[in-house]
Amino acid sequence: MPESLDELLVYSDTKELFHELVAKYALSSGISGVQPKVLLDASERGTLTQASYIVKSWGSDYPCLAANEYFCMTAAKRAGLSVPEFFLSHNGGLLIMRRFDITAEGAAIGFEDMCSLQALGTAKKYAGSYERVAKSISDFVSGNRLMEARQQFFSALVLSVMLRNGDAHLKNFGVLYDLPGHAVRMAPVYDLVTTTAYIAKDVPALTLAGTKKWWPKKTLERFAVAHLSLPMPVVSATFNRMAEAVTETRALIPAYMADHPGFKDIGQRLIASWDQGVKGLTASSTHTSAIV
């Protein structure tokens, strides 16, 4: 069985490989979620250095989920958001993401997701609101990192709406700290997926302004100003930057579809969802002056 990242990415039978990885590593992985995944250490590309990775696969209910997440994460990276290092296997069967809660030397970095910060069990991960997430960020992130954290959170929320990611729940936002009592910062953006590719009428995971729907631009603007204290020039620039990143990444999908015919159906759904999401948040807001 391959033990290097390069070998994992080019292994031809990723389904067989993933079953072998599960058999070897699953008992010690201890990670949750509906997407099949395992944790493992593998040598980094072109080096003999070991690093820790999460390897994700997909089942019949969510075909091509690895490629779906890869393109969503690519949009986040193009938008300038902090993301873990990630790779898609050559045949699209595996998404491999470097763990962000472990240093290059193998030491653990403190990580707490929003369920933990809000004293909620995993079963409650869809029960909260984005206003409550904003408050948790204000309560726990260190002052000198707070504005950066708020901007990242708002960017991730806008991006999720554009990507039609209905799985941005409480466990998919979190904070990091090197040691107890040290500075607390926002964790990178992770677990982005276009869920409407599988559930056509899916809605956001948490409420905003008391509703779960793909909110109009004016609702997100009000949220940014009232709950994140972001100035309108920053808010406006965020919409533009996210839209540009999604549009740039969208342009990569047709070529991937041509090379991977099995992705064609999901790829077309991604394109349709993204087009709708970008269009809904790039129209000029008639409420901007009132918000300022």
Structure at a glance:
This protein is α+β, with helices and mostly antiparallel strands and 292 residues long.
Tell me about this structure.
The chain has 292 residues and is of the alpha+beta class. It has 2 domains: 5-98; 110-291, Orthogonal Bundle (Phosphatidylinositol 3-kinase Catalytic Subunit, Chain A, Domain 5), CATH 1.10.1070.20. The protein is built from 11 helices and 7 strands. A hairpin with a 6-residue loop joins strand 3 and strand 4. The longest helix has 21 residues, at 143-163. Mean pLDDT is 88; it is low at 27-32, 45-50 and 285-292.
Blueprint of the fold:
Layout: H1 5-10, H2 14-29, E1 37-43, E2 50-56, H3 65-78, E3 86-88, E4 95-98, E5 110-113, H4 114-117, H5 130-140, H6 143-163, E6 174-177, E7 184-186, H7 217-228, H8 232-250, H9 253-259, H10 264-282, H11 288-291
Antiparallel strand pairs: 1-2, 2-4, 3-4, 5-6, 6-7
Helix pairs in contact: 3-8, 6-8, 6-10, 8-10, 9-10
- The CATH architecture name of the largest domain reads Orthogonal Bundle
Strand order of the largest sheet: 1-2-4-3
Order of helices and strands: HHEEHEEEHHHEEHHHHH
Query: How many individual β-strands?
Result: 7
The biggest beta sheet reads: 4 strands, antiparallel
